[in-house]
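CORE FACILITY INTAKE
Project code: CF-77B
Contact: R.S. (postdoc)
Sample description: multi-component assembly, two entities in total
Requested service: structural model of the whole complex
Turnaround: standard
Below are the sequence entries exactly as provided by the requester. Do not edit them.
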Amino acid sequence: MSVTAAQGFLASGVTAGIKESGDPDLALVVNRGPSRAAAGVFTSNRVQAAPVRWSRHALADGRLSAVVLNSGGANACTGPGGTEDAREMAERTARAVDAVPGEVAVCSTGLIGIRLPMDRVTDGIAAAAERLSPEGGEEAAVAIKTTDSVHKTAAAAGADWTVGGMAKGAGMLAPGLATMLVVLTTDADVSADVLDSALREAVRTTFDRVDSDGCMSTNDTVLLLASGASRVTPDPADLTAAVHAVCQDLARQLVADAEGASKEIEVEVVGAASEADAVEVGRSIARNNLLKCALHGEDPNWGRVLSAIGTTSARFDPDLLDVAINGVWVCRDGSEGEPRDKVDLSDRRITVTVDLRSGDSRATIWTNDLTAEYVHENSAYSS
Amino acid sequence: MSVTAAQGFLASGVTAGIKESGDPDLALVVNRGPSRAAAGVFTSNRVQAAPVRWSRHALADGRLSAVVLNSGGANACTGPGGTEDAREMAERTARAVDAVPGEVAVCSTGLIGIRLPMDRVTDGIAAAAERLSPEGGEEAAVAIKTTDSVHKTAAAAGADWTVGGMAKGAGMLAPGLATMLVVLTTDADVSADVLDSALREAVRTTFDRVDSDGCMSTNDTVLLLASGASRVTPDPADLTAAVHAVCQDLARQLVADAEGASKEIEVEVVGAASEADAVEVGRSIARNNLLKCALHGEDPNWGRVLSAIGTTSARFDPDLLDVAINGVWVCRDGSEGEPRDKVDLSDRRITVTVDLRSGDSRATIWTNDLTAEYVHENSAYSS
């Protein structure tokens, strides 16, 4: 149920002292092979942290031997010194696990704009390398937590092969430590190209559909490493399905753990002329602060849904829009439908369904409500 | 200092009983001429309220004799019945003030999706017509308030001619009654084309640059009516300057009155390759919930500014970005600049300055912080 669920992987987590709290803050994931095939996707933010730039470069040849991750500092917007720090983390890790630096990915999360305490980081890497174990997946997941209330792991089994994973973050709704880091592993024996396709397809409809507060991190990273240790080469479609299952599981855990949130909201757009239209409409609804406040207050305010839809370029006729909240079609043909007092919003999970009545495409975006706690946690201290 | 500051205009405001509170909720502005030239700009939301659709149509020939405005109900997403209601408001007003319905604009604000109580509205129109007066500008401004804490009026004087105006709304930060309505008047003797150019130029850099919470209304309307009563035809540039001054004054009043907000934030983008780039960057910063929370907490968190800039398509080099908060350049060359503890954020007004170092264009966006009060006011009751 973690990155060490798949054969051929070791992991560990330690307290390096990067965080002032004394909580674990440095993790390693090592691929013992025989394969070193890997793929990754990174934030589309144009302001990219030094470790993202490094890892992108390391992945260019489709191979990774290890990943070093730290919480307690994002190493973003840290200038040439930060670039050196990311490189040094890779080099120290390579030395400790007998790999080459160009095959080590680096992931960091925490406050933007502050240099990492590199003496502690390098000591931490040495200590983590000592603890590497085939049972280390759980402690690695713990060490990458920032404001996460629980650590997040998942796994999916194929026929004689496995996909495992861990994640940190709560979309961007976590108070400011605004990063999603995900490491996935598999013991399937597949090429980097197959991994890349499987990962992109899985991320496109899972992590890319989580939009808790519309804020995009400088550090988001999702990596997939394959050891080949099972000696099984699955059908690419089966691999994609398993990677998708793990990503979906972790994505739901992120939304469920979004700090400050009291509702998990699924925005389901159907009847769209294209998937792009459905995603645009879903995202505009998921990002609408007025609607997120209304749902927090358990008010089925469909007018705010229509206002949000109206800001998009999707194909629709305003007089032919239908909106259901928790299954009650409160808006029909762009105006009042069933009575809004039929809607029960007392549960933590809420579904908003929009039928654009313009085609057969659909998409689901997961988000959270906007709460006073969110404001408090993101304003009460620097993060 | 209101819509009756210009000669040739009458106005009034009454309690029609549309609002449950018993506060004034219906206003008239009447142009007694001799000219009836007019111009308008409307929400770019594709879901448009019935009165917006009606007024757009009424303005097609560049003439308006009167404007009828109500608070207490937006008449948006109300189907064919709502369309009939808007038409009836124009017809009743035309009859009461001796005009033709096609020269009467209609503006409504309040909850989306609910039909107006038309019996009260029509009685209110008759009562308001009785009260029309050259001193009625203030009471008209009061009658269009929703959650505004104060009514908003402004005026600018030319040489023997005047521009006056009134506004309601607090961007979209007002708790849910999410509409900006503005009526401007002038006694200058100018054509509808000249009015249209002056209005568009003025709105582009004032109301269009207010972005308190990124939510766009279905009802936003800005109208400019000219009576020609001064018999003066000013230079178009002078007229534009006066209209701009009134719009800027009213726009600042909207931001200052944004309910739930504790800070007025000016996002100033300089060094942009184009004005469009500057606006895109300014808006992305103004809409970033994490930054708005940080500024609420008086935390000069420039990392969140850079994260927001990174989501745009503007021209910039991430390693050459400079950010100042209240004049302190906390970010230089995309990394740490002057110490953040030099920044004093205790005042209500905050300026965030971004230098993209990519050209000579600039733009300013006005916004507010994100507060627990905003969440409370937008979640505690249906609006």
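Facility notes:
- Residues 150 and 257 of chain B are 8 Å apart (CA to CA).
- DSSP finds ten helices and 15 strands in chain B.
Invoice: internal transfer
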